[in-house]
Design brief:
binds magnesium ion, single chain, DNA repair, Glutathione S-transferase Yfyf (Class Pi), Chain A, domain 2, Rossmann fold, 10 helices, 43% helix, binds adenosine-5'-triphosphate, 2 domains, five-stranded parallel β-sheet, alpha/beta
């Protein structure tokens, strides 16, 4: 798929702008603080209905304005699909083919993007929270059922934690209600863990291949899903649900004491291994970056396998963070198949690696 056109109104520092893109490589050039990242962000928001850098939609609306609009024309299979996202004081409205979507979860997935920013290079080293967010965002885009389970899980988790706090403070005492919440939580939680394992298995397959090629056969990359839930390996979705319910019940006293839910996908993590050794602990800076790069590039293939279409790739200031060999590898992987948007301060930062003529946009003060 690719994005043919983009229209922005009152998004960040863009007052009003219409752009037509190349289905291949688009280079956004400009000095600092001109609007390069804002433009990539608008494409990301159009695809996922949320920003990669803020949870507060208000920040996306141009100063002193009340609404922002992002419209895009997406070419998918043989169709041109108009998408529209309105961000206003009273929330978001999403339209596909000019029809308002009742739920955002129906909207997400119309346009698939992968964003690679310098902070992604710390996927390996950073917090477990960042890795969970990574799994949830990437997988949520391609699997509506996963997104649904995740939303439901978060709702029940909030209720359950609130109730554990009440029990802890002896302001409530109904254990049957806690049990009902545990059962609901385990239902969604078990599904999430099962789905994450499937997704990560697929991602690992592609990432391994890419990593082997980037490191010229030296390094075998593997993943390990680390769960707070014990004995999860080889379990079916139903078994995982039962297991989670059982372990929630066993830990109930401890959870009441601490006033929070201790078991479940919201506490899980993902470990990366090179030749069997934990990259987070033993890997060099370069190995950690290469791992992040392999994982991101692998997502392109997973999305293609799952949806039948290649996603868009958004690269924000990434080239300058990679050495020559990794830059070449990155650009070779994407050329001729993935519509790409990349930002750079100047053309000579990217030129030597591009096989094809890119379409170049000079960005100055939101224009
Ligand atoms: P760099 O090369 O430093 O990464 P950039 O071109 O990527 O720069 P952006 O992050 O896209 O820069 O744009 C930053 C500019 O956008 C800042 O000057 C900031 O003040 C402005 N900006 C951010 N949010 C808003 C908003 N809601 N309304 C108006 N302007 C905004
Ligand atoms: Mg920027």
């Amino acid at each position: 798929m690719f994005l043919q056109k983009l229209h922005l109104k009152n998004f960040r520092n863009y007052a009003e702008t219409t752009l037509e893109f190349s289905p291949e490589i688009n280079v956004l050039l400009g000095q600092n603080a001109q609007g390069k990242t804002n433009l990539l962000e608008s494409i990301y928001v159009l695809a996922t209905a949320r920003s990669h850098r803020t949870a507060n939609d208000r920040e996306l609306i141009r100063f002193n304005q009340s609404d922002a609009v992002i419209q895009g024309l997406v070419h998918r299979r043989a169709d041109d699909v108009p998408l529209e996202l309105n961000l206003g004081k009273r929330g978001k409205k999403a339209r596909v083919n000019h029809l308002e979507q009742a739920k955002l979860s129906q909207y997400i997935g119309q346009l698939n993007v992968i964003l690679f920013a310098p902070e992604d290079l710390s996927l390996v080293k950073g917090s477990p929270n960042g890795r969970r967010r990574f799994i949830d965002m990437e997988f949520g885009q391609i699997a509506p059922r996963y997104l649904h389970n995740l939303t439901a899980y978060r709702d029940v988790l909030k209720q359950r934690n609130r109730y554990l706090k009440l029990l802890s403070a002896r302001k409530a005492s109904d254990r049957v209600y806690l049990d009902v919440l545990s059962e609901q939580l385990a239902g969604f939680g078990g599904s999430i863990i099962a789905q994450r394992q499937d997704f990560l298995g697929e991602l690992e397959k592609y990432a391994q291949e890419l990593h082997l090629s980037i490191t010229q056969g030296q390094e075998t990359l593997s993943f390990e899903y680390e769960s707070k839930l014990k004995n999860i390996s080889g379990r079916s979705e139903t078994e995982l649900q039962q297991l989670m319910y059982q372990q929630l019940t066993e830990q109930a006293e401890k959870e009441i004491f601490q006033g929070t839910t201790l078991v479940g996908p919201h506490r899980d993590d993902l470990k990366f291994l090179i030749n069997g050794k934990n990259v987070q602990i033993y890997g060099s800076q370069g190995q950690q970056r290469t791992t992040a790069l392999s994982v991101k590039l692998a997502e392109i293939d997973v999305m293609k396998a799952q949806t039948g279409e290649y996603p868009l790739l958004l690269l924000d200031d990434v080239l300058s963070e990679l050495d020559g060999q990794r830059q070449t590898h990155l650009l070779q992987t994407i050329q001729n198949k993935v519509q790409t948007f990349l930002t750079a301060p100047a053309m000579n930062d990217v030129a030597q690696n591009l096989i094809k003529e890119p379409k170049i946009f000079m960005i100055e003060n939101g224009n």
